[in-house]
Write a structure and sequence with these properties.
Structural class: alpha/beta
Number of domains: 2
Helix content: 25-40%
Strand content: 25-35%
Number of helices: 11
CATH class of the largest domain: Alpha Beta
CATH architecture of the largest domain: 2-Layer Sandwich
Oligomer: single chain
Bound molecules: flavin-adenine dinucleotide
Shape: globular
Largest sheet: 10 strands, mixed
CATH topology of the largest domain: D-Amino Acid Oxidase, Chain A, domain 2
Length: 433
């Protein structure tokens, strides 16, 4: 059976891999020349299942209001006239109640822990190297920041997540490159968490997928999805310019999976499927490591500025800021200034921050947090989207779960290995009747 995957970000490529493994004939379509060129490109690379959390959290609305118009804040709201934004905010506000937060967080963590197992299994089986590192150290600059982490600590204990609260000296033993002069009240170490280069993983998995028979149709934009009278689904295509004349203008398959990140909503709307997906913009800065002794060994998070610092081979990446209200991926100087300040504060001698490569990306965010993985009410049309801030951490599991559902619907395989409660399109009334 033929399955088309729209989108070659980390979610689409993982989906394609597992669909092929499940026996489907797979074609991946993406408008970019290579996979992982959009949101999957410049992310922080952190995989911390115990820390996966919805953006809709209690206290978050007040925090956003306080930082309204403050350009250096880790959370920035830029009100615009976009009705989709206001509809999204109305739903998001409802999800910030403690009871909803708990439900959403548990759903996300169920997926993230499963996904980490899938990633390890895939990594070991295929021998993929993606500049992975082990351990995640959260840094608290002040006693107040440390005190604010107490509820998170309680949750880690409740969920049995391995963690250790450290004083400043112990933090510096784990990360000897940390600058001595920057005030540090303490840290939280999560030894089982990790980080890795998401686009490198995605491109390597693409090679394995291609070798296994997956076809990649790159530099090709999906313009429309159409349901045929025989139940099959056609995607109307626009090849790159200048066209060679040999590219297909449409492809038809029995199954289509939409994994198009933030642009998925626009593709689905003409079919009557309204997915409340909204972009939450973030930034990253990547610097070549000049002196490895002064650079981080693994992943860290500056909890005061909410900036992640990750080591990716011979580079150091700083990533953060959540900006709601702008669909443009322009580089905002104040946000980048904060990232570079955090880098200079903690690892001043690691590299030349003036030569950082700067990037902005849009997190595909649903109001409540967990993604949507599974069948829609249109027969044969599946979704794997809305992974927000933690798509890399959830990618392998999401791909595996999509493939398991599709195969099971064909009478093959046992179905998903985890409970899909709250993780399918049915959550928004988009699933099969
Ligand atoms: C600053 C920042 C830091 C982050 N840090 C982390 C982190 O530490 N850990 C973590 O787990 N996650 C992190 N994330 C989130 C993570 O990057 C995303 O959740 C993930 O990349 C989403 O993947 P995706 O495949 O859904 O989307 P994308 O990577 O955007 O892929 C979608 C693909 O669809 C293609 N496409 C779209 N429309 C069409 C069309 N019409 N026709 C053809 N192709 C189309 C695009 O070209 C693109 O390749 C971060 C995000 C940001 C912005």
């Amino acid at each position: 059976m033929h399955a088309i995957v729209i989108g070659a970000g980390v979610i689409g490529v993982c989906s394609a891999w597992y669909l092929r493994e499940a026996g489907f004939e797979v074609t991946v379509i993406d408008r970019r020349p290579t996979p992982a060129q959009e949101t999957s490109f410049g992310n922080a690379g952190v995989i911390a299942p115990g820390y996966v959390t919805p953006w809709a959290a209690p206290g978050m609305p007040a925090k956003i209001l306080r930082t309204l118009f403050a350009s250096a804040s880790p959370v920035v709201f830029r009100p615009s006239a976009d009705p989709a934004m206001w509809r999204w905010i109305a739903r998001w506000l409802g999800e910030t109640r403690l009871s909803r937060y708990r439900v959403n967080k548990l759903r996300m963590q169920r997926l993230a822990f499963y996904s980490r197992t899938c990633l390890h299994e895939l990594r070991d089986r295929l021998g993929i190297d993606y500049e992975q590192s082990r351990g995640y150290l959260q840094l608290f600059r002040t006693e107040r920041d440390l005190a604010m982490a107490q509820p998170a600590l309680a949750l880690l204990r409740e969920n049995g997540v391995a963690h250790q609260l450290l004083d400043a000296a112990a933090c510096r033993t784990i990360e000897p490159g940390l600058a001595a002069g920057t005030p540090l009240a303490g840290g939280l170490h999560l030894p089982e968490d990790e980080s890795g280069n998401c686009p490198m993983f995605t491109r390597r998995l693409r090679q394995h997928a291609e070798a296994a028979g997956v076809r990649f149709l790159m530099e090709t934009t999906v313009q429309r999805i159409e349901v045929q009278t025989d139940g099959r689904i056609t995607v109307q295509l626009r090849p790159a310019e200048p066209a060679q004349g040999t590219e297909p203008h449409a492809l038809t398959a029995e199954r289509v999976a939409v994994c198009a990140g933030v642009d998925s909503a626009a593709l689905l709307r003409p079919l009557g499927l309204r997915v409340p997906l909204y972009p939450v913009k973030g930034y990253s800065a990547t610097v070549f490591v000049r002196d490895p002794l002064q650079a981080p060994l693994a992943a860290l998070m500056d909890e005061s500025y909410k900036v992640a610092i990750t080591r990716m081979g011979n580079r150091l990446r700083l990533a953060g800021t959540a900006e709601l209200g702008s669909r443009k991926l322009d580089l905002r100087p104040a946000a980048l200034h904060t990232l570079l300040k955090v880098g200079r504060d903690w690892f001043p001698g690691a590299g030349n921050y003036n030569e950082a490569t700067l990037w902005a990306g849009a997190r595909p965010m649903l109001p409540d947090g967990p993604p949507l993985i599974g069948p829609t009410r249109i027969a044969g049309l599946y979704l794997n989207l809305g992974h927000g801030s933690t798509g890399w951490a959830m990618a392998c599991g999401s791909g595996q779960l999509l493939a398991a559902q599709m195969a099971h619907a064909n009478g093959q395989g046992p179905g998903p290995q985890i409970d899909m409660e709250g993780l399918t399109p049915a959550r928004y009334g988009l699933g099969p009747a």
